[in-house]
């Protein structure tokens, strides 16, 4: 795999983790209503396995 392709692959695999970080930031920003808070909570629960999977993929890459 070319370096450019490898870097693009890593960026793509880190997107779920980046999304999770954004969701957690919204969760703790203190400006959400109870309903919004619960919606974000559900999105976080859905995002965690995707982020874990993508981080594990990157961790196992042989460079």
Explain how this protein is built.
It contains two helices and no strands. Helix 1 runs antiparallel to helix 2. The longest helix has 26 residues. The chain has 63 residues and is mostly helical.
Q: Distance between the terminal alpha carbons, to the nearest Å?
A: 10 Å
- Considering DSSP H and I runs of 4 or more, what fraction of the residues is helical? over 70%
Number of strands: 0
Total helical segments: 2
For the largest beta-sheet, the strand count, sense and barrel status come to: none
Question: Helices and strands: which structural class?
Answer: mainly alpha
Shape: elongated
Q: What percentage of the residues does DSSP assign to strands (E)?
A: under 5%
The overall pLDDT average reads: 93
Order of helices and strands: HH
Brief write-up:
By secondary structure, the protein is mainly alpha-helical. It has two helices and no strands. The protein has one domain.
List the helices and strands and how they pair.
Layout: H1 3-27, H2 34-59
Helix pairs in contact: 1-2
Which features does this protein show?
63 residues; 2 helices; mainly alpha
